[in-house]
Amino acid sequence: MSAVPMPSRRTLRPLLLLEAGTLLTGIGNGVALVVLPWLVLDLTGSAAAAGAVASAQLVPLLVASLFSGTIVDMVGRRRTALVADVLSGVSVAVIPLLAAFDRLDLVWLVVLTMLGAALDPAGATARESMLPGAATQAGWSWDRANSMHEAIFGVAFLLGPGLGGLLIGVVGADNALVATAVGFGLAVLLTLFLHVEGGGRPPEEHRPERVWHATAVGFRFVWHTGLLRNTMLLMCLVVAAYLPFESVVLPVYFNERGDPEMLGLVVTAMSAGGVVGALAYPPVVRVVGRRNLFVGCVVSACAALLGLATLPESVWLLLTLGALTGLLWGPVNPILNLAMQVLSPEHMRGRVIGVVTSAAYAAGPLGLAVAGPLIDTFGVERTSVGIAAVVLTMSMACFVLPLRPLDELTETGATEAHLGTVPRADGPSMGGPHMEGPQDGGGTTSTGRVDR
Fold first, then answer.
1. Domain boundaries, the chain
2. What angle do CA 322, 54, 150 make, to 5 degrees?
3. What is the pLDDT of residues 348-403, one digit of tens each?
4. Which of 26, 185, 157 is nearest to 90 (CA)?
5. CATH topology of 12-195 equal to that of 223-426?
6. Helix (H, G, I), strand (E, B), or coil: what is residue 449?
7. Into which CATH architecture does domain 223-426 fall?
8. How far apart are CA 230 and CA 423, in angstroms?
9. Contacts of 181 by beta carbon, 8 Å cutoff, 6+ apart
10. Rounded average pLDDT per 10-residue block, the chain, 452 residues
11. For residue 245, what pLDDT is reported?
12. pTM of the full predicted structure?
């Protein structure tokens, strides 16, 4: 098994096409994030119905994110991105079409929303799997490419909701979804011209044949790779406590105050801070090191969140703490992306990304299920501080987890990872999981042996 080949000549074109597609699909999803609940309220006038449609996305999103990586490794990264974007665009475009013929109802909305949610992870996983190859062709470091990738996600979800709100006022909620369909359509067009190393269909000997078995192999690989397992579990703990703060605590607090504009400003400040933090990652990591930056950012971002959780009366203090929380969290995702890219064998990268992503998706709803009853029992202020204190406490695990191998992640190290050798979680020496024999497809198995 070989490493990612060096291109004969450098070209930015694949990286630009890849990230333009990321931006367009992100903006489209950001528009839908605002428009779909509004459309439900227009149809039913029921907040409960709007919540039901939002909840309908969770199960398919979780299941799809788990298996989407296997589909990427089976079908090929570029092809998966194309198919996912086409079907996502169609599922959204059907909504204004049904509305035009007066056939749109809540059942159709739930079905189409679930379909769109089930398809999105495959496209996102496929693009993230192609990122190292596109970065190598451009002559960029993977650190730099991951920084830009996360910043573009942040920009997309800054622009999308605002555009969605504007379109609702100009053309109505149902027609506003045309913008989401157009975004996916343009992404498809760009991907048709995208040619990147490793983007085609995998060789037959590395191509999984059974979805469940191949996904289980990916899960075992993540679990037996100490660094991936430790960072995944840490992120699950933090996400389970953080997501309720952004999705429940702040909306309830500002709703009680009758100040929805302030809610929008705080969330925007957090997102904008995240974009700046992601962009600042490459120069900062060269100075302080990847492990120190990861630990410092996770703990300090959670500390800033605790300050925000006190819900200070000062508008400027609220916005500053929100921006600081996002800024400090900004470098975390690029570091996690790099760990997945370097430690996963080339032909298993989709599955590794899918397993780690699905774990985070699973953790979030658990926290959401607890936050509402806590607010009803203890009030929003006490619950806010309590949740943020839990987040900060959980983040302290960074100091005891063996995260030193983060400093050893290099693109040269990708060669060893592709050969089935990964940095051990408990020290600098090389060891860890060794996937023996042919991988996955056609009934072959992995021993999942751990050298300790």
1. 12-195, 223-426
2. 45
3. 899 999 888 888 777 776 776 777 788 888 888 898 898 889 889 988 989 988 89
4. 185
5. yes
6. strand
7. Up-down Bundle (1.20)
8. 13
9. 28, 89, 90, 92, 93
10. 54 94 90 81 70 67 81 90 92 90 85 83 89 92 93 88 82 85 93 89 77 89 91 84 75 76 81 93 93 94 92 90 93 92 89 86 73 82 88 89 88 47 36 34 32 28
11. 75
12. 0.79
Phi, psi (deg, nearest 5) at residue 451 = -85, 110
Q: Which CATH architecture fits 12-195? A: Up-down Bundle (1.20)
Contact between 249 and 371 (Cβ < 8 Å) = yes
What pLDDT sits at residue 190? Answer: 95
**DSSP codes, 211-250:** HHHHHHHHHHHHHHSHHHHHHHHHHHHHHHHHHHIIIIIH
Instruction: Decide if 215 contacts 67 (C-beta within 8 A).
Output: yes
306-315: long-range contacts at Cβ-Cβ below 8 A with a sequence spacing of 24 or more?
Answer: 306/385, 306/388, 306/389, 306/391, 306/392, 308/266, 308/388, 309/245, 309/249, 309/384, 309/385, 309/387, 309/388, 309/389, 310/384, 310/385, 311/253, 311/380, 311/381, 311/384, 315/262
Q: What string of DSSP letters covers 161-224?
A: HHHHHHHHHHH-HHHHHHHHHHHHHHHHHHHHT---TT-SPPPGGG----HHHHHHHHHHHHHH
Number of H helices, E strands in the chain: 17, 3
pLDDT of residue 179: 86
The pair of three-digit structure tokens given for residue 406, joined into one six-digit string: 């983060």
**pLDDT for res 55:** 64
Q: Angle at CA 83, nearest 5°, toward 81 and 86?
A: 105
Structure tokens at 448: 């999942």
Beta-carbon contacts of residue 415 (< 8 Å; ≥ 6 apart): 2, 3
Q: Which residues contact 151 (CB under 8 A, 6 or more apart)?
A: 275, 278, 279
Q: In this structure, are residues 123 and 80 in contact, taking their beta carbons and an 8 Å threshold?
A: yes
In which region does residue 281 sit, left (phi positive, over 0), alpha (psi from -120 to 50) or beta (all else)? alpha
Q: Residue 300's pLDDT is what?
A: 95
Are 246 and 300 within 8 A, CB to CB? no
Query: H or E stretch including 431?
Result: strand 430-434
| Residue 452 to residue 450: CA distance in whole angstroms | 6
* Nearest by Cα to 4 from 418, 356, 377: 418
The amino acid at residue 26 is G
Tokens describing residue 190 = 């760009």
pLDDT, position 54: 65
- pLDDT at residue number 288: 94
